[in-house]
Each structure stands twice: as structure tokens, then as C-alpha cells.
Amino acid sequence: MSTDNDKDRMESLVERLNRYNYEYHVEDSPTVSDAEYDRLFRELQSLEAARPDLRLADSPTHKVGAAPLPAFESVTHAVPMLSLNNAFSDMEAEPAEQRHAELFQFDERVRKGLGAEGGAVRYAAEPKFDGLAVSLLYRNGVFERAATRGDGVTGENVTENVRTIRSLPLRLHGDTVPSLLEVRGEVLMLREDFERLNRHQAELGEKVFANPRNAAAGSLRQLDSRITATRRLSFFAYGVSRVEGAVRPDTHSQEMAWLGRLGFPVVPESLRPVLDGIEAVAAFYESIMARRAELPYDIDGVVYKVNDRAQQERLGFVSRAPRFAIAHKFPAEEAWTEVESIETQVGRTGAITPVARLKPVFVGGVTVTNATLHNEDEVARKDVRVGDTVVVRRAGDVIPEVVSVVLAKRPMVSEAGADLVEPVLRPREMPWRMPDRCPVCGSHVVRPEGEAIARCTGGLFCSAQRKQAVIHFASRRAMDIEGLGEKLVEQLVDLGWVKTPGDLYRLRAEDLAGLERMGEKSAANLLASIEASKTTTLPRFLFALGIRNVGESTARDLARHFPDVEDLFPACREDESDDAMARARLTDRLLAVPDVGPIVAASVVEFFAEPMNVAVVRDLLASGIHWPMETAPSAPADSPVAGKTFVLTGTLPTLTRDEAKARIEAAGGKVSGSVSARTHFVVAGEAAGSKLEKALALGVTILDEPGLLALLA
């Protein structure tokens, strides 16, 4: 490359990196990923190493961060807050020396600097937090001042905000409190506190934060420390820069233990035994990376320091970093990429989930091409569109998700019109909308009022829901087909023998006998159980259909008011499949059923509005499924139970829950699953929980088992 090309490239890199630095450290609004920043920074370092004569005075390799915010008083650091050089690893390489080549090169430089090429160096290791570095000053054991890193020489005075951190000691304790102590550490936000903050922000309709680091930065830079106090920041110490009036420990590990005794929060990993040699260091890196997702805070790598402070002083510093320490970074958990399309997936229960198809990107140690968008509301909240550049996050084995959109990179188009004086820019793509038809079976997609999840209504025939539908259909409380367990259902569906529940009644003994772990006797027993299931009750049959929001109790109420299942079909007759009036008529009839509200009525109507669902029901009836006519249980006119609502909770001494329920219903009562002001009796057994507490609060009559039996008698 020519000198002019070198110079132009270096000037371009310096300008870009300084801009990215300002956006990240001052505005808390990065427009480039950490991985991309690191790549450009390393390119600049390489160019400056090859052509030191072209190095620019404002190169970011000279400094650590960005200038302090003018809103805060400036603080000049007595000891500069330097950064660390980085090491990266190729986790697919073998052996470990090749996988962690840059780490081994660091160790080689350390041993050479110490004249200890033949011996192992002892290292202290600790997590590399993803937060904000601060310096804390204590005089005679009392907290006096806190400052951010800033540009490494001058930082921002954030004393009042740091004072609100509950874990931070405002007065040190112990027998070795120095007259002056300056401690370096990290302000961050624990994951659970971050999630709590974002939930609160969303409830208030305010901006949610992209990650805990941004949340911590925004909280620490509040001009009103009362706001900071509500944000639950945390602090962990990681080193000492100045000590007066006390003997400073000889090693870094002893220093961390000393800070802990003085009252500073110190992460357990900082107090672990030191590591002998670089092989142990590499093993620690892989160990903590495997546990990364389990930690209560975000980390983006591990920091290693030569443990002996005398050796640290011999090794010294380069312009911006110590020679005795290095930051070994993990593969980025967040990366930037483009959304190529937004598609939908159908879950086993019919839930429709939007999924972003991405331009492949390496994040969290793997190449990611898909990321969940959770639900329609999340897509709208984040305003994710096809063509957008997005931040993708993958932590451990967690499914990758789209965290946010980089709006500065959104593709725009110019729009001109007769009524416009000048052309205006608008987004190239329109906002995404949930499709109204299932991508698998073509059924209607509905989103019940008050729910975040949209669902496919073709539960009986949609192939995405097939296994779950058949398992539920055969379950004990539904059609009670003994021997038809989950694994057997999976085999039958995977072989294509069962596509709807009606196919169960067409299975042949000779086919079943050839399946894994299924002989002739087992096949005969299963077919006998399937045959026996044809004689059932209408409530069981309705429950077996898997209609959303229709449980056993609701199925029983429906059976009493619709004794012929075809009474539920009017909205789906071929000549009026799209007839809104037919749906309205059925809805009105359903709402006349006690305890059937608008949500249940809508679920029933949507289910039977799918012609394929009706076709499956008719197929089941044609296979021979039948039941006696359902009649409401009779009860004496003066029965104290008739028309009363009961709730069962806890374990009764002799009656099972089902037995107690059956006796109450036989006497004309009704059993509900939740306590409300309309509940007449709560029957409480051993280990009764929140239902009993709510009943007591509402003044509902409480019965034990003897009291229930006396009432029924």
C-alpha cells in the first residue's frame, strides 16, 4: 500500500473511531457493534505499528474513552485510568495453544519481560464487566468522591449518583483503614434489576434500554441523583490505584481480599486461587465462558493480571495500557446484521411467532441466521422492518433475539408529490403486520382480546399442532385411550398414519404390531382401547377437541345447552361460512350459557368457523363415536347446594378432587377453579394455599371435608 493510501486510511479510521467513541461513551447511543469497533481499532493499531511516522495526534490508540459530559464537573485523575489491550480466540481451533494464540503470545511477552522464559507466571483472573469504570476516593475511611474514566486523564464527577448505590460502602471498616485510598471498579446493573427497570419503563410508556450497560450508563449520568437512586445500580471493585497510611498488599489477589475486608463488593471469581501458568488461564477462560449465561451480571470476557505487584512494576506500561494485564474477550453476544425477511412459525399449541430471517452473522460463538421477535406487539414496539440493521443477541443456549433496530441505518426512499414543496424521505419498508392466515394450514389467525399471542384456529388438522392435538384428544380426561402415549403418538404422526384424531379409528393391528416396542398383544390392547373410547360423553368429546379456553367444566356447560354437537355448526355450514350474522347468532346462544363469557364464546365460534375443524368432527362422529344425551343433574328444590358455586383447594382426607367435584355437581352445585365474590363455598384441605387466603379476605364460607359431606347430606 502507498504512503498516501496508508495516510488516508489511518485518517478515516481515526475519524470513525473517535466518532464511535463519543457515541458510545458520551451519548450512550452506539451506532456500531463492539465487534466492528474492535476490528477497526485493531486495523488502526496494525497500520500505526507499520507506519509510526503517520500516527495522528488524536488517534484513539492514545486514549481510553471520550471527553467528559460538560454537565458534570471535571475531575483530573491523580493516576490515569488506563485501558487494557485485548486478546481474542478462535474457539474452533485445536489445540488450546492455537485456539488461544493471542493469549499465549501475551504470556510469552510477560515471561520475556521478567526474564522468566522457562518458568510459569502466576496470574490473577476476574470477569471483565460490561459496565462503566469509575474511580472512588476515600479519606480516613470516608467516601469523598467518584469519577468516571472519561478520557483516562479527566473524568466526570458523579459523586452524588454513585453515593446512591446501596452496595457501596460510604465508610470503610476493619483494622487497616488507610488515610487515603483510591479504588477502581465497575458500575453496572444486574440482569434482574435491568429487566425490572425495563418493565417499569414500558409501563410508563417511556424508552426501554437495549442492554444493562446502556441502562447503567444512562442511570449514572442522571443530573438528578434521585432518579439514579431508583435504578438499582451495583458496584464491584477490581483494583487499587493509590494508598496512603496503610501497607498495600504484595499481590493482586491479596489486594482484592483486603478490599473485601474493608467493605467493598468483590466478585467471588476475584477471590479464587491464582492460576499457575498460561494453560490454567486458558482453561479458566473456557470454564467461565461456559457459565457466562448463569452469572447475575453481563460480562464480555476475562481480565488477567500478573499477580505479583513487584513483577507488575518491572513490566510497566505502554502508552495506553499496562504490559502486565490483558482483557481476553469472549465471542460477542451481540452483533449487528440485516433483516432479510420476517416470517412466522406455528408452535405445537397454535401460537404464531414472528421470526427474523437474518443475513448470517457470527454471535455468541455460532453463526446465527434466525432470531425470534416474540410476538406482534414486540415487533411493533421495536419497529423491526425488512431491510433494517438490527442488534442481535445470543447468550449461552438462549434462542437468539432481535434486541433493537439501528434507526440511523434504516433504508429510506425519497418521496415527491404535487403537494410537496421538496421531496421527503420515508422508510423503504412498511411496518410488519401479523398475517391473517396460518402459514402452515391456511386457517384463520386470531388474537384473543387481552392476549399478546396470536394463534392458528386449525387445531384439529394443522400439521404444526398435530402431535399436541392427538395427545390431548387421547388423554385420560378426554377420550381416555389407554396405551396411546406421547412417544407412540410421535411415531404415528411422523409415519404419516395419523393426520387428524379421526385417523386413530382407522389404524390396523398388522401395522401397529411392526412399530418399535409394540408387539401383537400391545397392538390388540391399543385397538381395543381405541374402540372402547367410541362410547363416551359429550362433555368429554367437546373437551377432547382442544377448543381454546374450553376446559372440562365449560365443556360440561356447553353439553347441557347444546346436546347435539351439530348445534354448534351453524356458523360453518357451507352456504354461510362467511356469514357474520350466523356467527352472531351462535355467539348470542353461547353467551346465554352460564359462566360462558365473550372470550370463551369467541373461541368456540372461531373453532367451528373453520370448515376443516367441522370436517374432522364429522369424521369422528362417522367413525362411531357416540354418547347418551346429557341432562342436567336433578336436585331437591330445597337443596342447599343447588346453584351454588364451590372452589376446592388443598388435599382432602378421604375424597379425591374428582370425587368431591362429582358429588357437588350431582347435588346441583358447580365447581369453579378460582375464588371470586360470586363464590359461595371454599372446601379447604391440607396445604390449602392462596385460594383459601383470598376466600378469607372476601368473607367466603370455608368448609372442611366433614362440613362438605354434611352439606351434601
TrEMBL record:
GO terms for molecular function: DNA binding; DNA ligase (NAD+) activity; metal ion binding. NAD(+) binds at D34, A35, E36, Y37, D38, S83, L84, E126, R149, E186, K305, K329. Its cofactor is Mg(2+); Mn(2+). Its EC number is 6.5.1.2. Coiled coil: none annotated. HAMAP family: DNA_ligase_A (MF_01588). One of its GO terms (biological process) is DNA repair. It is an enzyme of class 6 (ligase). This is DNA ligase. The gene is ligA. One of its GO terms (cellular component) is cytosol. DNA ligase that catalyzes the formation of phosphodiester linkages between 5'-phosphoryl and 3'-hydroxyl groups in double-stranded DNA using NAD as a coenzyme and as the energy source for the reaction. It is essential for DNA replication and repair of damaged DNA. Residues 636-713 form the BRCT domain. SMART domains: BRCT, HhH1, LIGANc. SUPFAM superfamilies: BRCT domain, DNA ligase/mRNA capping enzyme, catalytic domain, Nucleic acid-binding proteins, RuvA domain 2-like. Belongs to the NAD-dependent DNA ligase family. LigA subfamily. InterPro entries: BRCT_dom, BRCT_dom_sf, DisA/LigA_HHH, DNA_ligase, DNA_ligase_AS, DNA_ligase_CS, DNAligase_adenylation, DNAligase_N. It catalyses: NAD(+) + (deoxyribonucleotide)n-3'-hydroxyl + 5'-phospho-(deoxyribonucleotide)m = (deoxyribonucleotide)n+m + AMP + beta-nicotinamide D-nucleotide. It holds the Pfam family BRCT. Keywords: DNA damage, DNA repair, DNA replication, Ligase, Magnesium, Manganese, Metal-binding, NAD, Zinc. The active site is at K128 (n6-amp-lysine intermediate). Zn(2+) binds at C438, C441, C462.
